[in-house]
Amino acid sequence: MASEPKTESKRNIALVENAATQGAAATKKIIDNGATTARAAMEKGMEQATKTAEGFFKAAEEAAEFGRGNIEAFTKATQTLTVGFQDLGKQYFAVSQALTDHALESAKALAAVKSLKEAADIQAAFAKASLERTMSEATKLQEAAYRLAEQASAPLAARMTLAVEKMAKPLAA
User: How far apart are CA 91 and CA 152, in angstroms?
Assistant: First the structure.
């Protein structure tokens, strides 16, 4: 009977070793599965973070590019307006010069009159011609100013249209 406790002791040891081996295998499997799950979660998190960062960078680049376009449009509008004002100033000066020359011609003609009727006729003709010329030139200057306003505002209007299109895009998507 002395051999029976040794056998039972060996069996118990074998059972404990078996249980320990199975426990160690189960623990290793749990640790391996946990590590795999953690790695997958980290990779997915990094992938999402990368996509988000790329989205932010792309949005920042687009915003910077849009801002550059706005500055270019504003610069072009300002240049057009400046050149246009110079041209309008030249036109206005030319009209003023022509009206002054016409007034000098009339003054010379008035200086050489021999009768009151002749002076009245010259003065009436001068007034009529001056009024017609002034109205004609004022219309030309007004049309030139209107064209200038259209040309100068065109780059800004184009940027506004683009901005509205960009703002509407996310709503449609």
Answer: 18
Find the farthest-apart pair of alpha carbons in the chain and give their distance in angstroms, rounded.
169
Q: How many domains, in total, are found in the chain?
A: 1
Give the CA-trace dihedral at 122, 124, 127, 133, to 10 degrees: -80
The pTM of this model reads 0.61
Q: What is the 3-state secondary structure (H, E, C) of the chain?
A: CCHHHHHHHHHHHHHHHHHHHHHHHHHHHHHHHHHHHHHHHHHHHHHHHHHHHHHHHHHHHHHHHHHHHHHHHHHHHHHHHHHHHHHHHHHHHHHHHHHHHHHHHHHHHHHCCCCHHHHHHHHHHHHHHHHHHHHHHHHHHHHHHHHHHHHHHHHHHHHHHHHHHHHHHHHHC
The answer, yes or no, to whether residue 169 has pLDDT greater than 90, is no
- The per-residue pLDDT for range 97-138, each reduced to its tens digit, is 999 999 999 999 989 989 999 999 999 999 999 999 999 999
Residue 170 has what pLDDT? 64
